[in-house]
Design goal:
Layout (H helix, E strand, L loop, with lengths): L2 E6 L4 H13 L4 E10 L14 E9 L5 H15 L3 E5 L4 H12 L3 E6 L10 H11 L4 E4 L2 H9 L7 E3 L6 H13 L1 H8 L4 E6 L8 H14 L5 E6 L5 H10 L4 E3 L19 E5 L3 H9 L3 E4 L8 H8 L4 E4 L5 H4 L16 H6 E2 L2 E4 L4 H13 L1 H15 L4 H17 L2
Parallel strand pairs: 1-2, 1-4, 2-3, 4-5, 5-6, 6-7, 8-9, 8-12, 9-11, 10-11, 12-13, 13-15
Antiparallel strand pairs: 14-15
Helix pairs in contact: 1-16, 2-3, 6-10, 6-11, 8-14, 11-15
């Protein structure tokens, strides 16, 4: 029986869901879930719901702190003990994936590259591109996020027929089911989490590349042009730019609502009576994130650089309209070209706006506060458009599921095993 290993720096809910789907389809394969360490600097996932047996190479360590040679030696010994035939490795850099790749090749294993980089995230110059080409040629196949990622990996020398789409997926069924449960208890959940009756949602890490300052400026501009609106901005997440974002809100005259601490049932003021503003909810686990998606009007990801954006998958699974920048790696595949039927009621939209609209949302220039503000205004004013786009999101995301990951991962493994 062929043996297959799936390696990530650290397993979280996304990884468990993908490997569980892979194991359910791999009748003739032995699947091993392997992580370098149980912690990373970037993610504080609750892993209590993991459903696959997990091999942790450095329990208790932070993945980024483990040296290249320790990773090389430990992965080599583990791969050999498991008698792997194929190993899936997340990228070729930084040091830990590279160490695992070299360990696998030293044993003669076939390797599959898992990657969501694209030309928009590549910062390599001539030498860097040359080095990437050399590393990519060490892989036998690849599993990538979508169309831009496939084009990028092909440009680095891997044959197109050896590249498969479907790497960046989430457990769609979980988010759809959880969103339905939340909506059935909408009034109760709004009270418990002190959520506004209407809001736009941003969810993810607070980093420079997320371009959240543009979102806040666009929200201010939207409020200035939308007399009487009661639509707030809810921001779920944490990170290095949070203090700057709060300060920006105050500079722009936006009320800031601090809700980063655990929320208890609210007994006082009615949220509907508050001035429209920005609500900071801090980092939340996936189980809670579905609550914020389920009750939102739309989801916004304004990144100036983004490999994929799994939060878009989550929001679409919950039936939300999506507004993303054209630098987000999933934009081409998850925001489908075409206009919702409701746009026929808006014949006076400007040509630039009609170029930005998609079946399930809008794509915009991340440097344009005006474009984003205009799109927020359109969504705020048109509930039928929001509903139509949300329905389209659910249909589109059905082609990016854990089952698709499993099917295409198996095709990649088969290709790797038969590669010349």
């Amino acid at each position: 029986m062929p043996s297959l290993g799936v390696l990530w720096s650290q397993y979280g809910p996304y990884h468990f869901a993908r490997v569980a789907a892979l194991q359910s389809r791999a009748d003739s394969l032995e699947i091993h879930a392997i992580e370098i360490a149980s912690r990373t600097h970037d993610y504080q996932w609750d892993r209590s719901g993991g459903t696959v047996n997990l091999i942790t190479l450095f329990p208790g360590a932070v993945a980024e702190s483990v040296s290249f040679w320790r990773v090389f030696l430990r992965t080599r010994r583990t791969f050999a003990n498991l008698k792997l035939d194929v190993c899936f490795i997340p990228s070729y850099s930084p040091k830990q994936p590279l160490a695992a790749l070299l360990a696998a090749r030293s044993l003669g294993l076939r390797t599959v590259l898992m990657i969501d980089s694209h030309f928009g995230t590549s910062q390599s110059r001539i030498f860097g591109t040359w080095l990437k080409r050399r590393l990519v040629r060490m892989f036998d196949a690849a599993l990538v996020g979508g169309t831009p990622q496939r084009v990028y990996v092909e440009s680095l020398g891997l044959p197109r027929e050896n590249i498969f789409i479907g790497y960046d997926v989430v457990d769609n069924d979980f988010f759809a089911r959880r969103a339905g449960e939340v909506k059935a208890r909408a009034a109760e959940m709004r009270r418990q989490y002190d959520l506004p009756q209407r809001y736009f949602l941003s969810l993810g890490r607070f980093l420079d590349k997320k371009n959240l300052n543009t979102l806040i400026r666009a929200y201010r501009k939207f409020l200035d042009g939308a007399t009487g609106t009661q639509t707030h901005l809810v921001m779920v997440g944490s990170g290095e730019t949070e203090a700057h974002l709060r300060l920006l809100c105050r500079e722009l005259g936006l009320p800031v609502y601090d809700k980063a601490n655990p929320i208890l049932p609210v007994q006082g003021e009615d949220p509907a009576g508050r001035a429209t503003g920005v609500h900071f909810y801090g980092f939340r686990q996936i189980e809670e994130n579905a609550i914020f998606y389920a009750l939102a009007d739309a989801f916004i990801l304004p990144s100036s650089s983004e490999e994929w954006g799994l939060v878009v998958n989550e929001a679409m699974s919950c039936g939300l309209p999506i507004v993303v920048s054209d630098r987000v790696g999933c934009a081409e595949d998850l925001l489908k070209l075409g206009h919702p039927p409701e746009t026929e009621r808006n014949p006076h939209w400007s040509p630039p706006l009609t170029d930005r609209i998609r079946q399930n949302g809008f794509v915009f220039d991340p440097e344009s506060v005006e474009s984003l503000a205009e799109e927020l205004g359109i969504l705020d004013a048109d509930p039928m458009l929001r509903q139509s786009m949300g329905q389209a999101s659910r249909l589109i995301i059905g082609s990016f599921s854990c089952e698709d990951f499993a099917r295409n991962a198996l095709l990649a493994a088969k290709t790797a095993l038969t590669a010349g």
